[in-house]
Each structure stands twice: as structure tokens, then as C-alpha cells.
Amino acid sequence: MKFLFLGQVLSFIGRKLDGYKTLIGGIGLILMGIVGLINLTFDMGWVEWSLEISLGFITTGFAALGIGGKIEKLTRVEKERG
Length: 82
Fold this sequence. Notes:
Elements: H1 2-16, H2 21-42, H3 51-81
Helix pairs in contact: 2-3
């Protein structure tokens, strides 16, 4: 019963965020990379990531945004075609 309710809640959230999930994920990855770079610069003790890992997060975030944009563009074209 608990899993049925959880599935319905997650399904509802997924439908509401349709079209924004990739954007949220990409921005989240970029922000994680920035947090890693800030930690390396000021040694704040937040995370133990190297420069390569932080830059990898940022690069992956931009890649996700680019791929998500292309998918949305193709989806829009397919909807217009009918």
C-alpha cells in the first residue's frame, strides 16, 4: 500500500515537471561542480572532490542541457507534424 501511494506521488511530480526535469538535472550538476570548485578554492570542508571531478560535473551538466534542448526540439517538431 505504501509503495502504491509513493508511486502515485512520484508519478504526479513527474507529470508536473515534464519538460523541466532535464533542465533541473543539468543545472543541479553545474551547481554541484561549482560547489566543488568553491570548496577547493576556500577549503571549506564541504566535499572531498578533486578539480577533475568538479569540472566533470560542470561539463556533464552542460551536456545534459544541450541534449535536453535537442530532445525538446525534436518532440515539438513531432507534435507539429501530427
